[in-house]
Amino acid sequence: MKKVMIVTGGSRGIGAATARLAAKAGYAVCISYVNSEAAAAEIVREMTAAGAEAIAFQADVSVEADVTRLFEHVDRTLGPVTALVNNAGMLETQMRVDQMDAARLSRVFNVNVIGSFLCAREAVRRMSTRHGGQGGAIVNVSSIASRLGSPNEYVDYAAAKGAVDTFTTGLAKEVAPEGIRVNAVRPGVIYTDIHASGGEPGRVDRVKASVPMLRGGQPEEVAQAILWLLSDEASYTTGTFLDVTGGR
Ligand code: NAP
């Protein structure tokens, strides 16, 4: 069976690292992005140079029609998806809960939670033996924030990742008899641009002293965990969580 991976939010950070590793591991890869067209094109160029079949597609995971178009495009160009990395995620400026308005809460939950549901739905429709598929694997990129709560920073984001954890548990059980494994990684503090969107680009260096390993993580270290969970080496692993946090 041809290995076809979709990595949502593959233009930067953990998603880009995952896509690069997947290309080297023999997957045909589609990365999605919202704004970073040039960065996505560069990642595709790198994957193609490494000998992989690779494409990029613009799709906001919180927009149902975009998600449908993404999966249909992959059907036509690479073939049906066999591995989904629900990586696209975002957070907003650090603030207390008593400052948050409904518009912000909707954006955070729409992208992190509903986006993951919509992409998984499309993947299950293609992978599940119940729908005539041949099985597959899904990895949700949650966060250790789901267990820590992110007080004074972004409790909304942490709660959204808590929902992603519960979604992982439920979907894993729902589709386990249909040939699909569903797992999650929970990264700790990783050097990517996401901290700048919270208003603190240097956040990893501020908090790294509280990490037992005394350093932040690199996107590639998370990507390795994702690739393992998707691989046949993890064939009896479903509904579980791999914390990639340096012990945090
Ligand atoms: P990042 O560097 O900010 O990259 C985010 C990626 O997601 C970009 O490719 C971005 O596309 C894409 N994206 C954002 N909103 C999207 C939407 N609505 N639809 C589709 N794509 C969207 O973030 P990162 O740190 O690599 O984070 C990746 C995942 O890891 C997220 O789920 C995040 O919550 C999780 N995580 C990160 C950390 C950390 O410390 N970095 C820790 C725990 C969990 P554009 O480039 O087009 O904007």
Could you characterize what this model shows?
45% of the residues lie in helices and 15% in strands. The chain is of the alpha/beta class. The chain has one domain: NAD(P)-binding Rossmann-like Domain (Rossmann fold), CATH 3.40.50.720. Strands 3-2-1-4-5-6-7 form a seven-stranded parallel beta sheet, with helices on both faces. α1 (13-24) packs parallel to α2, α3 packs parallel to α4 (102-127) and α4 (102-127) runs parallel beside α6 (155-175). The protein starts with a strand and ends with a strand. It binds NADP nicotinamide-adenine-dinucleotide phosphate (NAP). NADP nicotinamide-adenine-dinucleotide phosphate is lined by residues 8-15, 32-36, 39, 60-62, 87-90, 111, 115, 141, 143, 187, 189-190, 192-194. It holds the Pfam family adh_short_C2. It comes from Noviherbaspirillum galbum. This is 3-oxoacyl-[acyl-carrier-protein] reductase FabG.
SSE order, one letter for each helix or strand: EHEHEHEHEHHEHHHE
* End-to-end distance: 38 Å
Strand order of the largest sheet: 3-2-1-4-5-6-7
Number of helices: 9
Could you tell me the strand content as a percent range?
5-15%
Overall mean pLDDT: 98
The domain count comes to 1
Cα-atom radius of gyration: 17 Å
Pick out the low-confidence regions.
Answer: none
Structural class: alpha/beta
CATH third-level topology: Rossmann fold
Tell how many strands the DSSP assignment holds.
Answer: 7
* CATH architecture field: 3-Layer(aba) Sandwich
For the record, what is the CATH homologous superfamily label? NAD(P)-binding Rossmann-like Domain
The ligands bound in this entry are:
NADP nicotinamide-adenine-dinucleotide phosphate
Shape: globular
Query: How helical, in percent, are the residues?
Result: 40-55%
> How would you sum up the major sheet?
7 strands, parallel
- CATH class equals Alpha Beta
